[in-house]
Amino acid sequence: MSVFSAVAEPHRRQILDLLREGEMSAGELVERMDLSQPGVSKHLKALREAGLVAVRVHGRRRVYALEPEPLEEIVDWLEPYRMLWSSRLDRLEHHLRENP
Amino acid sequence: MSVFSAVAEPHRRQILDLLREGEMSAGELVERMDLSQPGVSKHLKALREAGLVAVRVHGRRRVYALEPEPLEEIVDWLEPYRMLWSSRLDRLEHHLRENP
DNA sequence: AGGAAATATTTCTGTACAGGCATATGGGTG
DNA sequence: CACCCATATGCCTGTACAGAAATATTTCCT
Fold this sequence. Notes:
2 copies of one chain form a homodimer.
Chain A: H1 3-8, H2 10-19, E1 24-25, H3 26-32, H4 37-49, E2 53-58, E3 61-66, H5 72-98
Antiparallel strand pairs in A: 1-3, 2-3
The structure holds a DNA duplex (30 and 30 nucleotides).
């Protein structure tokens, strides 16, 4: 599964957002989300395979940590578009400056 | 369909990439892509509904233009992650790993 | 060793959706 | 008006995948 697809699923984005607060066990994620335990587990598997999270076994807990690097692929893809629309905004600014 | 899902499909990303070169008719897009005409047309519909492209009717042609603004939602979502990995110097590591 | 806790996996069901082909629609031209 | 071109839409099939419930697995604790 591509990083793009991994991130297309709202629950998976929510998991990543939660992990931005810091490492968290699978159970803690389940508590914080409105989704069944198997559901969360399955999404965690997808995120693992996309390289977006890393697991550390701690006792019987699995502690998950954010691994944001693969997101760079999306950032890189977006880059030319950002330039596009900022140049458009520049044009708009320019236009407004000339026609107040 | 969310912007995230719209962009998750490789053919749709390809369409957007092509449109970065400038406006283009549907037929021109079909010529440039390895996908049937109906296939391209369906993806164009999805992109229209996501607000990522705009159509202009010109004779019997439909001329499509890039409308990059909705991508900002993705950029905004990514922003905290960019800060995360730049603060952790993951970005530098990544860069050094690829350019030793 | 036995049981409980934490998590993963399997199984099932429904749904979404991509792709191809055939067909409809709408505008342009003779 | 009849015909052609460009594009959209319908229909069909296969596949991927999300969610729920039940079950398996691993590890800790006593």
